[in-house]
């Protein structure tokens, strides 16, 4: 058990409930003018005033002229809701927000017992703290924020101001330096780049490094903390090492004072650097201590004439021996030494904006973050951010803060058992080879069994096609997974070939076998025409302005020529070209799928797929020699089916793509089952002697796979279309039900293999249809909505294996090639999706088989922050890098066009903007890529999850639009989450994340998202389309 115990926790709660917060509506917040010499900043900006008023603060009192140094007029504050008052009125407010520590005179102006939030530096300003204590003030020091607290980073004013100081230091240095920072090669001669040395790898140092690198200088960095090396090098600078082992990392993220031996080694290294570099920027500070001298007088003498030093520690004594606070001096050897202490004030407006944001958000968090009372200000000693910053509490000293000891784990002596971790034994080569030999033996036995009843040519065709499908799909870009499934779906419409083999009886079919064949032909044609048209529409979206014209219609020439040659050869008795045409059909289908590997070949792939299906249908019709009446029936079936497919596909947009593909899969399943049953009826009537074990196996498998594909696809359609709930169906005894239906299917299969009477055989096929249909419904319904992308790829694979079974049944190599190609490619795509979602492939395919019930999900605590469109637009404008993460909500709202314009506006204004797409974003793989392409987003700024995740920690703003599950940190943080273990886009690692969502509700998987409540996240709630339109308009202003 942990200490403190329940009693201690209850005491904390009692103390909180006894505390009375101050209602915002009754509060007056004052902001006096800063009077420190050279200070131009202010503790409030018009934006922060508006935020205070938005949250319900009664009055915001700004001293007359307080913002003039930052170029903010009184009118700007008044427009935001503030009142302009005298200095004394500002100090008389209930809460006073300040930037510089107040002077003793200003401290005396404060109303007794009010609250002051400001930089205080209590360790150096003891007299000030005593003065404030006399009048029972409550004082919170902005310089005491715990920097290692993730939430505290939002309020870290030291960092925000240091960032500006580091930037401005390099600007001041470049102004004094007599050369370009970047090297130049001109007709007049070559100018070498400046060499800049930055001492200190904190916020200011890193900002200086980045600025100098951006200006083209050669940059070197140095810090006593070993951990800073990686950050300095990540900014593109060379990290300098001292030839002495000692780590300078101190508490709270600061540096500690180093030993004399280390200083001697560092001096030797720095003396050499001073003779080489042109500019030195120093940022070394130790809290509460005089700044260490890093560059002594001898080092300054070693620098060249015209070199520059900028000392950011000038106010604390300086890191450079020649520094004079607030002055520029030039040494005897011509080195310019800048000791400006007002560097942030030299960018007063930006400094004011950032500080005002820091202090305002801290003030608004004090109370609501822990008490959950949204409109009350309260000093809560249990708040991890407030307590370390609390210097005085109603005059009582509470500084320095001593953090509580870490929790103590109690355990009974009898329970203390030293855990023995057994090392895994080294791999046994013999066992590894034995396992491989066993698997090879099983495979060999299967092939021997197949070879005893299957003709070698068709078996070889099957094996080679499976291997080709395997390698073809592994090369397909994730962005093209949606078109890939659409084109394989269209090619699987080759079940029409099986249906055509049963068509007959004249204009109207006259037997049950003919009716089944006609049905299979018609619905397969729906798949063919609809699938290819959907594929074409998707691929056309990826076209970019300037891409060369394409003329796929010209491929009709070789197709018509091949079929014409086939017809002429057959009629003139020149030989049977059917095998050659079938081979050409299979090769075109292979080329169709392989073409989807790259953007520049994808549309050619779709054309080749159409050519392959056309050749296959043509060679089948040529082999039939139908009479005129039957030919008329075939034309009608193809016309009706093709017309229906065209009508359906014409209405399909990117949003409806997943459910449309699922519906098309169901048609393939019905066609395969209908053809198998019809073929059995035909054989029992006209050729019972030809029915053997291979034929029966093929008939049964085609029926069974067709049934599970048809019903599973219908359920998937219902879930994707919103007709059925996304939650998994979890019936008691779910696995046992599936196993019982599987056993019954095997029993019926065993009986069917005995070649029973036609009546019994039809009963067996009927049982196969019913049992597989029930399995399809139950297993698909048992799979949660989050796994629907995988279900679609599984069904895609099933449709291929159904077609392959038809090929064995009809002894048709073409169907075997195409079926094995689609089946294996769908299986590999399923594997890729399961890897992307960290899902067990067997569990997904078997409807969650073997999954144990998880415990309750992690309880999410805290409050979320909300922003409006204007604040979001400001964030985006001020960022240097933005990543947009779209989700299915963007598709539903049809907001892709506005988002595309937002990205263009940001990129045009110099903000690097990219898109991050999860492999299973949307309801099927690649759907969001298609959606963005539809809106004209160039595909070269759309990146996959694994490519962009490493960039997120360096990204200023990650904005999530309509996504939830794919950015849910619970997948990594909560083992009981519905999506635990699923790789996600780590938007919470960005410096700031914004989630644009209609409500705070859960995503498609039904899992709560902790990202919403993280301190660096803000929610922008509302309709995606309306909000994106407003955001676009605001950015365009």
TrEMBL record:
Under which name does UniProt file this protein?
NAD(P) transhydrogenase, mitochondrial
The record's annotation in Pfam families points to: AlaDh_PNT_C, AlaDh_PNT_N, PNTB, PNTB_4TM
Where in the numbering of this chain does the Alanine dehydrogenase/pyridine nucleotide transhydrogenase NAD(H)-binding domain appear? 174-339
- State the protein's purpose: The transhydrogenation between NADH and NADP is coupled to respiration and ATP hydrolysis and functions as a proton pump across the membrane. May play a role in reactive oxygen species (ROS) detoxification in the adrenal gland.
Spell out the CDD domains in the cross-references.
Answer: Rubrum_tdh (cd05304)
Question: Which cellular compartments is it found in?
Answer: Cell inner membrane; Mitochondrion inner membrane
Entry's EC annotation: 7.1.1.1
Signal peptide range equals none
Question: Might you name a Gene Ontology BP term for this protein?
Answer: NADPH regeneration
| Matching NCBIfam families | pntA, PRK09424.1
Q: Which InterPro entries does the record cross-reference, listed alphabetically?
A: AlaDH/PNT_N, AlaDH/PNT_NAD(H)-bd, DHS-like_NAD/FAD-binding_dom, NAD(P)-bd_dom_sf, NADP_transhyd_a, NADP_transhyd_a_C, PNTB-like
Q: How does it sit in the membrane?
A: Multi-pass membrane protein
> What region holds the Alanine dehydrogenase/pyridine nucleotide transhydrogenase N-terminal domain?
30-165
Enzymatic class: translocase
Q: Hey, which family's this protein in?
A: In the C-terminal section; belongs to the PNT beta subunit family. In the N-terminal section; belongs to the AlaDH/PNT family.
**Residues passing through the membrane, by range:** 458-477, 484-503, 515-534, 698-717, 737-754, 760-778, 814-834
Domain of life, per lineage: Eukaryota
